[in-house]
Amino acid sequence: MKRTLIIVRHAKSSWANPLQSDFDRPLNERGAKDAPAMGARLVKAGLIPELIISSTAKRTRETASYIAQQSGYDVALVQWEDKLYHCIPSVIEETLYVVKNSIKTVLIVAHNPGITEFVNQLSPHFFTNNMPTCGIVAATFESDRWEDFPVSKRKVIIFDYPKNEHDS
């Protein structure tokens, strides 16, 4: 069975309040514009998540909610995971182990630097120095189980981000 994993770095966040905790920083104006636009690009590419899993930080919650709305996903069904807040790549991977095998497409919203490290481990044919804010990497692999993700041959099918040039 073909499975698709979509990895999203949260959209641009606000630094307007220097006393605000990192966890509680919201999206700024650009982030609030980019997140729904990137959700629309996912839909245009035919990448519709059956499950969205997101860090619980405010900026990731907002990013996940915008993308969910654009893709017709019920925001109330987003799976919120504290462990995805500034996690290492293995935690992102472990998140997949409990996904029901009936689900074919999963979208995860998380943070740097772990998200850049994670996407760079997806395929020997893909590398980015830095996952841009609201950047998206999607990879496919063949398996009957999400638990096989670490040993599966994966192919990156999309790398997109808000400042990437697109045909209108």
Report a brief summary of the structure.
This protein has 168 residues and is an alpha/beta fold.
Q: Which term fits the overall shape?
A: globular
Count of helices?
4
Poorly predicted ranges? none
Please state the average pLDDT score. Answer: 96
Identify the CATH class of the domain at 15-104.
Alpha Beta
Structural summary, described in words:
By secondary structure, the protein is of the alpha/beta class. Helices cover 26% and strands 21% of the residues. The chain contains 4 helices and 6 strands. Strands 3-2-4-1-5-6 form a 6-stranded mixed beta sheet, with helices on both faces. Helix 1 packs parallel to helix 2. The longest helix has 16 residues, at 29-44.
Search tags:
about 170 residues, alpha/beta, Rossmann fold, six-stranded mixed sheet, 4 helices, 6 strands, about 20% strand
Set out the fold topology.
Layout: E1 2-9, H1 29-44, E2 51-55, H2 58-71, E3 79-81, H3 89-96, E4 105-110, H4 114-119, E5 136-142, E6 155-160
Parallel strand pairs: 1-4, 2-3, 2-4
Antiparallel strand pairs: 1-5, 5-6
Helix pairs in contact: 1-2
